[in-house]
Amino acid sequence: MVFAFLGLCIVSGFLKTRKEPVTTLWTAKAAYARPIFHATMARNRFFQILHVILFDDKTTTNRWRSTDELAPIRVVFESIISRFPMVYTPNKHITTDEQLVLFTGKCLFHMFIKSKQGKYGIKLWVADEAKNFYVCNMQVYTGKNDGVREKKRGLQVVKYMIRHLYGTRRGVTADNFFTSCELANLLLTKKMTVVGTLSKNKPEIPALFLSRETKRCPFFYLWF
Predict the structure, then answer these.
(1) 0.85 cut: is pTM over it?
(2) Is domain 88-223 in CATH 3.30.420, yes or no?
C-alpha cells in the first residue's frame, strides 16, 4: 500500500498537479478525471497514509539529526536517487546546476534566493542529461554548516553528482560557480571533459589574460 501511495505521488508530479487541490485528483467529472487514482486507492485512504507516514525511526535518527539536517528522510531520499542511474543510460552531455524547489513550509534549510523567480524554497544540486533532461543525480543543499568549504563547494558538488560516470568519456557543462581548472584536471584524469564559464576572479587565470579589454568581461570560457 505504501508503494502505491508513493506511486500516486510520483504520478501527480508527472501530471504537474502542484497548483491543484489534492482532492481534485479523484474527481469523477469526465473532463478532469484521472482513472489511475481511483483504480489505485480511495481518496480517504490516501489522506490517511499522508497524515501518518514517516520515513525514519526517531529512536535512532535523533542521535545524528544535529549533524544532518536531512536525517528524517535521508535513507528514503538516497534510496530513490540511487535508482536513477539503474533505469536509464544518459546521453554523452551532462549538465550540472542548482535548482530551487518552491516551498514555504517549515524547514531548517529553507532558503531565499533573490535572483530566482519563486525566491523561497529548498535548493537542490542537480546533474541531468542535456538532451532529454533526465535527472542522473541529485543532492539537497542543507546549508553551509555541512563540513564543506564554500570555496570548494562547486568542485565537491560536481564530483558527487557524476562520480558514477567516471571513465565514460562524457562531457560536463556547468556555470562559473562549478567551473575551475582543478575540476577540469580532475575530469581529465577520469576520461571526461568540461565546458563552462570561468569567473575572472579565479586565482588560476594568468594575469596576462586580464588585460584592459578582458576585464570588462565577467567570464571566460573553459574547455578541456
Answers:
(1) no
(2) yes
